[in-house]
Amino acid sequence: MPTLHVIRRADDLLAVDAAGHGDPRGTILLIHDGVRAVVPGSSSGRCPVYAAAHDVQARGVKTDYPLITTAEICRLIVEHERVIVW
Which pLDDT value is given to residue 73? Predict the structure, then answer.
């Protein structure tokens, strides 16, 4: 069952670690201050990691994760069977 993990805080290490080592069919979405997080294992392609474009721009940070729009975030929510917000 694919899960969308929505991470709101970069300092929530439990959430970042759990999401990064979860279901390989799942997806991680970084929003709010979570766009500053570094997800372990994300470079190995375990599961895709995305960052909300408007949150990255609002915080003036750079990220290596693909940026997605609000419409694309909605699409991710609909495509996944479960959504966990950390």
Answer: 98
Pairing of β 27-30 and β 67-68 = unpaired
Helix (H, G, I), strand (E, B) or coil at 48: coil
Contact by Cβ (8 Å): 16, 84: no
Q: Identify the CA nearest to 20 among candidates 35, 5, 33, 34.
A: 5
Nearest to 26 by CA among 1, 50, 49, 3: 3
Read off the pLDDT band of 32 (50, 70, 90): very high
Query: How far apart are alpha carbons 47 and 84 in whole angstroms?
Result: 15
- Owner of token pair 């966990």: 84
